[in-house]
Each structure stands twice: as structure tokens, then as C-alpha cells.
Amino acid sequence: MFVRPSQGKMHGFVIGLGAATADMLYACIAAFGLTMISDLILEQQFWIQLIGGSLLLYIGIKTYFTMPKDPTIPADKESLAGSFFYTVFLTLTNPLTIFSFLAVFAAFGFGDGMSLLSATTLVVEYLLVQLCGFWFSLWVSPV
């Protein structure tokens, strides 16, 4: 996902929050063992791939046939809420995200007699590291 510099750091921040929100949702699903949802994703994998692939194809075709805007003309500003929800949707349509969380939690022995408090702590610590890295990248960004 690309953010034009004219949109500013706030749009970049909101897009990052959208991705973090979707990642947090998938992390909670993986961490708390909601196999019904992960089984549903596996069962509907064809449709998820079809919709996600169609979305990528649409974006690619639209990008290819759209003339670049003149930099002197200000680009249309997308709302912050639109940027947030677009990023959440885009991140949720990637089924590999939940599989990566499942793999990480399995590697740490997640679910092998771990208490709910330990599981919650692991998820919160992971998300804290992720968001701190995101904030750090915003802080060091020259734009």
C-alpha cells in the first residue's frame, strides 16, 4: 500500500493502525484457539483467494490504466476512516496472516497447557513490539 507524501504522516499512521488491527484480530484468533474461525477460513479458502485475487487484479488494472496526476494539482484526499478500513480489509483477505500467527504460537508451545493469562500476555507483548516498531519507523521517517 502506498501513501502519497501529500497525504501526510497521519494517513501513514492510520494505515499502519489498520494493518495492526487486522493482525491483532488474527493473533487473538490464533492465540485463543478459535478453531471454528480458522476452520471456516480453511473451508472457504477458495472464495477468499478468489475475492482477494480479484481485488488485486482490479487494483492492478486500475493502476495500469490510470493516468498519473499532475503533481501541481492536489490529489483527492481519502478520508482517514476510509484508509483505516481499506487497510483492515486488505490485511484480513490475506489468509497467510493467520497461518503465520498459528505457526509462531505453535513454535512457542502456545496451547500446551498455557494459562489464559499467559496466552493473553504473549499476544499483548507481541502486539506491543509490533506497534512500537511501527511508531519507531514513523519517528525516524524523514517525510
Describe the structure.
The chain is an all-alpha fold. Helix content is 73%, strand content 0%. It has helices at residues 8-31, 35-43, 45-65, 80-92, 96-107, 116-140. Helix 1 crosses helix 5 and helix 1 runs antiparallel to helix 6 (116-140). The longest helix is centred in the last third of the chain and has 25 residues, at 116-140.
Task: Produce a short descriptive summary.
This protein has one domain (8-65, 80-140). The protein is an all-alpha fold.
Summarize the helices and strands and which ones pair or pack:
Elements: H1 8-31, H2 35-43, H3 45-65, H4 80-92, H5 96-107, H6 116-140
What are the salient characteristics of this protein?
143 residues, mainly alpha, 6 helices
Number of domains: 1
Shape: flat
Beta-strand proportion = under 5%
- Given as residue ranges, the uncertain stretches (5+ residues, pLDDT < 50) are none
- Return the structural class: mainly alpha
Outline the biggest β-sheet. none
Task: Report the oligomer.
Answer: single chain
Average pLDDT level: 73
What is the alpha-carbon Rg in Å? 18 Å
Total strands: 0
Q: Kindly, what is the distance between the CA atoms of the first and last residues, rounded to a whole number of angstroms?
A: 16 Å
